[in-house]
């Protein structure tokens, strides 16, 4: 259900490298949520670092939405860079499995496979 890799890079370097990989694959970065900073800013203890990238391929998103508009709730894809146990990790929920839980449409399965292949490559390149 999850695709997570451990990185030897610092958190900041992995964040920068993921941003570059996303753009190389012609996906857009819609927003980056700094979860750690947000929690600490709200007075909550959070020792680690965590940034969640919302990424999107307009072509793939349009295809999904044209098939089933309700799936807007599953978009955009999210890729996370975070620290755990002193290590930097990069991961995501696998698009194919997530979409399969929401739809059994074979056309959507093909789109999810393309998106998952691309996002896995982004994660591996940022590793």
Report what the structure shows.
By secondary structure, this protein is of the alpha+beta class. The protein is 47% helix and 28% strand. Strands 1-5-4-3-2 form a 5-stranded antiparallel β-sheet. Strand 4 and strand 5 (87-93) form a beta hairpin. It is globular. The two termini are 19 Å apart. The model has no long low-confidence stretch (mean pLDDT 97).
Topology as a string of helices (H) and strands (E): EHEHEHEEHH
Strand order of the largest sheet: 1-5-4-3-2
Q: Give start-end ranges of low-pLDDT stretches.
A: none
Structural class: alpha+beta
Question: Tell me, what's the shape?
Answer: globular
Number of strands: 5
The N- and C-terminal alpha carbons lie at a distance of 19 Å
Overall pLDDT confidence? 97
| Main β-sheet description | 5 strands, antiparallel
Helix count equals 5
Tell me what portion of residues adopts beta-strand conformation. Answer: 25-35%
Share of residues in helices: 40-55%
Radius of gyration: 15 Å
């Amino acid at each position: 259900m999850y695709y997570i890799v451990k990185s030897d890079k610092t958190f900041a370097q992995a964040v920068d490298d993921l941003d570059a990989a996303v753009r190389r694959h012609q996906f857009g970065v819609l927003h980056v949520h700094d979860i750690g900073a947000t929690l600490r800013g709200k007075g909550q203890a959070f020792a680690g670092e965590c940034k969640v990238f919302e990424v999107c391929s307009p072509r793939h998103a349009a295809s999904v939405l044209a098939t089933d508009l309700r799936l807007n709730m599953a978009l955009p894809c999210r890729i996370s860079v975070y620290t755990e146990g002193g290590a930097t990790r990069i991961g995501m929920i696998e698009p194919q499995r997530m979409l399969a839980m929401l739809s059994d449409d074979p056309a959507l399965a093909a789109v999810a496979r393309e998106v998952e292949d691309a996002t896995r490559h982004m994660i591996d390149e940022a590793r």
